[in-house]
Known about the structure:
By secondary structure, this protein is of the alpha+beta class. The protein folds into two domains: 5-186, no CATH class; 239-315. The protein is 55% helix and 13% strand. The protein has helices spanning 34-41, 46-62, 70-87, 89-104, 113-123, 126-142, 156-159, 183-197, 232-235, 241-269, 281-299, 305-312, 317-334, and strands spanning 5-10, 15-22, 25-33, 165-170, 174-180, 202-203, 210-211, 225-227, 230-231. Strand 4 and strand 5 (174-180) form a beta hairpin.
Amino acid sequence: MKKHGLYISLLPDGKIKRHLSTELGEMPLPDITIAEELIALTERDRDTVLKELNLVQTLAFQVEEDPSSQFPFRLCYGRYLHRLWEESPMWYTLLMTQFYDEISTTSFENWSEKQAAGFMADGLSAPEIVEVTVDLALSLLCEPDPEDPWELNLREDIIHQSTATVFFTLGDTLDVQYLFRSTGQYYVFLLQHFCLSNLNIARCQYCGRYFIPKTRKKTLYCDRIVQDGKTCKEIAPYLAYKRKAASNKIIRGFLRIKRRLASRVGRALSDKKPSVVDMTIEQYRKWMTVATDARDRYLAGELTEEEAMAIIYVPTKDELLEKISSELTLETAAT
């Protein structure tokens, strides 16, 4: 019996040929380039995903304290998986195969209902953590900043402790096929091959999203339709200089803070000593939802520069430490 998961082949034209093996049978997926797959991952509907995921995890935490919440948890959990299947059968399959592999190497005999529910709920975060990793990696590839260096460390929980299974088939030529059973495996593989391809990735200086320029020549704007049926490339050149400078200021501020917060998420998931700047994946996703909306509303002329930056801005480590020190000083003085 064929093992379930995502099977891909690298095609000569730079695309990847994909198909899923699931309980429902074989499911071919459209061919896609590695760049398109990575960029699409960074453009998911964060708001809907975050709300549903937070609800599942909240109910999972309540299971042991309140046995009656077991049914709402499983109902909500099932609803989330159903929505994930509708959004992307590929993501659903990779999540289920990852669960199966983890369960097959884990003993549940002494687990409480709360621990089991927690395991199930935490597993749903795997694709979200991978998305943060890919977004940060593309940002580093797109805009290396010597004055603000960052290092991307792919942890074992991202890679899922293993690599793809490789199959060789000898026909007219030697064909290579890869089997993936987790989102971490798949997207780390794509990142590695994307870096080796030496493609010229860019970030639109108007909408702030990634794109692959059609030539090696520096391209500032993408072809996405953003306003009144017009693309960034059509709108941006006609903006006044002050407006363009302000737009760049907002976008660069958004990107700089996003990098800083993504790093805090990675730090919080590591074994380092806890810090006041640590951030959970849920907190990061909440900020992304609010900050992205503020950026887009500013670009659409609905917010001023000051209003947008007030929403996007997050204090630095030094500012947080200074605030904590001031609060302790006031408390001491009051006593």
